[in-house]
Specification:
By secondary structure, the protein is mainly beta. The chain folds into two domains: 3-34, no CATH class; 41-158, Sandwich (Immunoglobulin-like), CATH 2.60.40. It has two helices and eleven strands. The protein has helices spanning 3-23, 32-35, and strands spanning 45-49, 52-61, 69-77, 83-90, 93-94, 96-97, 102-104, 108-112, 120-122, 132-139, 143-152. Strands 1, 2, 3, 4, 5, 6, 7, 8, 9, 10 and 11 form an eleven-stranded mixed sheet that branches. The protein starts with a helix and ends in a 16-residue tail after the last strand.
Length: 168
Amino acid sequence: MNKRHSTALVMTSTLAALTLTLTGCFNGPNASTNMQSVQLTGNGVQVQAGDIRAENLTLVAGPDGSASATLIMRVTNQDLEADNLLAALIDGVPAFITGDVVELLPNQSVGFGYESDRWINSYEFDASPSTYVPVALQFERSGIVEANVLVVPPTGYYEGIEPVPPAM
């Protein structure tokens, strides 16, 4: 084998090794794309309690001076039996739930606060936009689930989302 073929073989082998090594940096269980799903990365927190999954939890601050906020989310019951949302706490304070108890039918989902007739509101809210607030949801069968939820202002995408009823 001449020197030219030797150099080409070494370069090809080195390139193949580097390709496998470098592309492997972004794979595996500790990849940044996997780790983001369990970190506070912004609005849209996801939580699960048993077979109940709550998705896209976001707190929309109420109108200026109202001391209110609306929790928007979608709750899906992935079980074969119905469950009920019994209560919610926003920043440690009991929240008002439209209908008091919300039935979650098997394999169905219910939206809250956005394109929905169901609301979870706090009327004693004192957190600024861009902060995280503890939220707890209590389900009859699936228990309690907690999350830290981002507060966003009622502008842009969230414009028009506000507590219903507006005050208690």
